[in-house]
Amino acid sequence: MSARARRGSRFWSLLPALLLVCSACTTSSAPSAPPHIQLNTQTNTVDVTGLPAATVAALSSTALTDRWTEADWQALLRVSVKPAGSGESTPPAPPAVAGKYSVADGALRFTPMFPFDAGRQYDVAFDATRLPGAQGPDGQSDAPWRKQIVTAVVGKPAILRSPSTVVTHLYPSGDVVPANQLRMYLHFSAPMDWRSGYDYVTLLDDRGQEVIGAFLPLDADFWNGDRTRYTVFFDPGRVKRGILPNKQMGRALEAGKRYTLLVKREWRDGHGLPLKEEFRHEFRASPPIERPLTMAAWKVTTPAAGTREPVVVTFPDPLDHGLLGRALGIARSGAPLEGEAAIESAETRWRFTPRDLWAAGDYDLVALAFLEDLAGNRIGRAFEVDNFERTDITTEPERRTLTFKIRR
Amino acid sequence: MHRISLKTWALTLAAATLAVAVSATRTVATAEPQAPAAQALQSIGPLAFGPDGVLFAADRQAATIYAIDLGAKATGGAPGAKDVTGIDTQIASMLGTDPKEVQVTDLAVHPRTRNAFISVMRGTGAEAKPALLRVDGAGKIEIVALDGLKMTKATLPNAPNAAAAGQRQNPRMESITDMAFVDGKLVVAGLSNEEFSSKLRTVPYPFAAVDAGTSVEIYHGNHGQFETRSPVISFVPYKLDNTAHLIAGYTCTPLVKFPVSSLAPGAKVMGTTIAELGNRNRPTDMIVYKKGGKDYLLIANTSRGVMKVATDGFATAPGITARVATETGGVGFEPVASLKGVEQLDLLDDQRALVLTRTEGGALSLQAVALP
Questions:
Q1: What total number of domains does chain A contain?
Q2: B72 at the A interface (CB within 8 A)?
Q3: What does the alpha-carbon distance between residue A200 and residue A145 come to, in Å, rounded to a whole number?
Q4: Taking a contact as any Cβ pair under 8 Å apart, which residues of chain A between 12 and 41 contact chain B?
């Protein structure tokens, strides 16, 4: 159980709102009183309490626990998801919830394999006729409840939340993108549901009509590690000239036209809630960029030695925000420099502030080979170029460098 | 919704060639023998059975592959497979939740018992957990408790980063889309959420301590007519002149085959584009089978149903080298109209496939179906 879930359990344990409907139990502590069924919010278990000591001892004896199978335990104490829409469980009952059975704190305890869901109800059936020692000399063999099935409905209260997750950023952040734009990044204020976002992102044209088939129809995991960033891929088959989808459908974006990227509110966050609001981003398509990146076209502005002022690298066109975050660095004599990097001006500027003072001398701006612009063009290789006749072993080195000098 | 699956299967086919370019970089995967159960999976995605019934399970969240010794869980049930209608509802009930909270991520048939193993994620948010289930020949569904099972793991290398160690953010960049065990090695296809490219790694098994992976980018193209960096979505091992090959389904072009031996640093992959299956469609699951003395490929697709492809055409058909003006091209295929709503597919035996199908009403069922 996570720390968050534990905090939640403690919180809810303080509330008297624990749902507990017990059709055959009472609060009496008389010897012949039937046992209680309750959801223990401290342990997130279903506990059967009020059993005679001899019965508890019998349940915990190894002679029994070695012999009984899961089916035996489920016949004694069965927990199942309460079917939706019915006032009470109706046959055929759904399969029992999987879990472990034990005796703890004088109670028969069921620990589900996965924590019970908040807001979900569970049917519990305790068949006292299957208790070991039911005929034994425990003083209650003849108690009426020994011949009954004690039932209850238990559950944790729903956690009431209001939709609060929003789209915080969209990259590329500029309002102009090339017609052969390859991907976009959506950043969220909180972790999202881990499933695909394909159904929730739509491209609208300047009349508000959906551009059909704009994005890669792939139900793949395009999330980052904590599911706060989702990558939207335009269908590359339409982006690249000469490929069948491109021939048949053309590019989704046409230069000169305006579009809106719409993120629907129905997209669920990590709590299963919709977004607080839909998100719209308007942009215009410019002519496609079909040439490779050229580091020589980058402008490097250098500070003076003895300062911690940033080095600023300016690109003629925006670069991919996600790749910029890890494909650029500064090194001296081959060793990476510690510092802070920032991406600015609609991804046309990269700023690096060193941890230590600049020393006079040569430094290298290092670009890893996978750095791309918005259209998938890499250093020395355009997205449109086919690799049929050559291998990247020789044409795409791992690192490219641009040397600059820090002066006194 | 279709999920990626993988199968281990091999048949023989005569040779055909087409040049494809490749780049290769050496990478290192870390491996940890006999990982304690406490280090259990964060998530569970593609499954593949390996030698002696070891189950490979991909943890996409951690970019890690676990090799799981199923122990008694491998043989404890009635052998074979049985249809289970509404299996999503039954699984959800066992997991204590609603079917909407359960996402099936793969289906794999045990090579000896022919029991079905199904990987699912319970929950969709931050608290989502992985679960593995076995369905035996009596239709009994059992949760395979992962804690307590012996397992080893191999973690994919971190994404390259130009920054100094102290300033690196190391977000996960790669998701595992498919796996298959071929000639003593696990072949793993990865999909990046940043780069538009494909990574195929071969990881020797048993997992070695270091240097356990080779990253190879596969390019394929026919004189400029096809996408060159398109990610591999699913693939199936296939023997060609007693040499292991892969038949791979790509996002932006259909089926390509190339030899497994080419998946090495410095190698140049030779592949053949076999068939064009139509746009707005991705082959998500493939098996190879034999019927009436002929080999066939059965392909589940995102939007074009299930297709049957006779592989004897693979040997003689030239690669698609000219612009495909029609909807489809290359080796012909036959739509299998009887199979609808197939979300997962694996070979059950010589006569049948095992599928998870979604009805129009939304229910998921496990079915053994005759191979077409």
A1: 3
A2: no
A3: 54
A4: none
Distances (CA, A) of B208 to A200, A393, B175, B264, B294: 42, 26, 22, 17, 38
| CATH number, residue A255 | 2.60.40.1220
* pTM for the whole structure: 0.85
B218–chain A Cβ distance below 8 A for any pair: no
Alpha helices in A150-284 (DSSP H): 236-239, 244-249
Q: Structural domain of residue A17, as residue ranges?
A: 3-155
Residue A40, amino acid: N
**Together in a domain, A35 and A62:** yes
A211 and chain B in contact, CB less than 8 A: no
Last residue of a domain, one of A155, A176, A195: A155
Helices and strands counted in chain B (H then E)? 3, 27
Same domain for A151 and A275? no
Prior bond of B259 cis (ω within 30°): no
Q: Taking the domains of chain B in order of start, what are their residue ranges?
A: 12-158+173-364
**Facing residue for A270 by CB, picked from B126, B266, B303:** B126
Q: Is A329 on the interface with B (CB under 8 A)?
A: yes
Torsion sign, CA atoms B31, B35, B39, B45: positive
The answer to whether A322 and A171 are in contact (CB under 8 A) is yes
In the listed set A227, A255, A286, which residue is the last one of a domain according to the structure?
Answer: A286
* B44 within 8 A of B57, measured Cβ to Cβ: yes
- Across the interface, whether the CB atoms of A247 and B325 are under 8 A apart is answered yes
Which residue among A268, A325, A338 sits closest to B166, beta carbon to beta carbon?
A: A338
Segment 341-380 of chain A within 8 Å of chain B by CB: 341, 355, 366-368, 370, 372, 376
CB pair distance less than 8 Å for B160 and A222: no
pLDDT digits (tens), chain B, 372 positions: 333 333 333 333 332 222 222 323 333 344 444 444 445 788 999 999 997 899 999 998 888 899 999 988 888 899 999 999 999 999 999 999 999 999 999 999 999 999 999 999 999 877 889 999 999 999 999 999 888 888 888 887 766 677 776 665 555 666 788 899 988 888 888 777 887 666 677 788 888 632 333 444 444 433 333 444 666 778 899 887 777 888 888 765 567 777 777 776 545 455 667 777 766 677 778 999 999 999 999 998 877 889 998 887 676 655 554 444 444 556 678 899 999 999 999 999 999 999 999 988 889 999 999 999
Q: With contacts defined as CB-CB under 8 Å, which chain B residues touch A370?
A: 160, 195, 197
Cα dihedral across residues B264, B163, A347, A211: positive or negative: positive
Contacts with A333 (C-beta within 8 Å, 6 or more apart), sequence order: none
- Interfacial B residues in 295-354 facing A (CB < 8 Å): 302-303, 323-325
- Do both A46 and A123 map to the same domain? yes
User: Is residue A219 located within the same domain as residue A262?
Assistant: yes
Same domain, A340 and A219: no
Q: Which of residues 170-189 of A touch B (CB under 8 A)?
A: 182-183
A224 and A186 belong to one structural domain: yes
Residues A21 and A49 grouped into a single domain: yes
